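The methods section describes the discrete structure representation at length, but only in general terms. Each protein is reduced to its one-letter sequence and a matching series of backbone shape codes. I believe one specimen quoted in the main text would settle the matter. An entry of this sort, consisting of the sequence and the corresponding backbone structure tokens, reads as follows.
***
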Amino acid sequence: MLSLIMARCLATVRHGGAHHGPNAIIQVTAEEFEALKAEGKVAALEEAEPSAPAAEKPEDRTALLDEIIEAMGKVAKEEFGKDGKPNVKPLEAVLGYDIKAQDRDDALERLAGLLKGGE
């Protein structure tokens, strides 16, 4: 079975016919990863099995926001922007599905409300 690795770009990387800038998340084979890592261009996020089913995005808005809040705790500090918010791509890598920046922002608002004792 082909082993794929989710990698975070540390520098601009040309992969799959496109350029990916620093902090971009790309999926590469183990062989590609080792070559790019040796050049100091990527770091591993996680190993991913291609046969693993994709995570299903919750249809319920509250459940979605709660999953995003949980994913925020799994994102490295380096993956947060200058505004203090986690970048969307690393959140998507943890979640296994796409989200919008507005989803992340809404999750941050929900988290602030929960920390103040609200629902």
Summary: The radius of gyration is 16 Å. The chain has two domains: 4-48, 61-115.
